[in-house]
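During the reporting period the student researcher (J.K.) took over the structure-prediction task from the postdoctoral fellow and processed the backlog of single-chain submissions. One of the processed entries is reproduced below for the supervisory committee.
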Amino acid sequence: MIREAPCVGVVEDDAEVRVALGRLLRIAGYEVATFESGVELLAARGARMPDCLVVDVHLPGMSGFEMQARLRAEGFDPPTVFISGGEDPGLAERVREVGGVRLLHKPFSNAALIEAVVAALARARAS
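J.K. obtained the following structure tokens:
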């Protein structure tokens, strides 16, 4: 039986960052679905949903935290790695409170992202 590669959803409003993250994750062997916003991800609910998410905290219209809450309310709770360009001291605590797998501050290394995605997918398999 051929097994599909895990799908990682990337929700990032900066097109260059979104493309770079998608490219890196594909090279690492993952299927990738990219979204410009939480609204776009929510609208794609009919397609194969990602096994885990990499989400920018600061998205236009709906923050990464608000998007995650909406997904949970709809019965979809994928493990989430949050990313941020800001250095808000309370952000790491907020990520822990909402059950995020990890918080990565931009710029982060390729290895740090892959390690966080591996941890998120391990959590997905365990649940």
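The committee noted the following: The chain has one domain: 7-126.
J.K. will present the remaining backlog at the next meeting.
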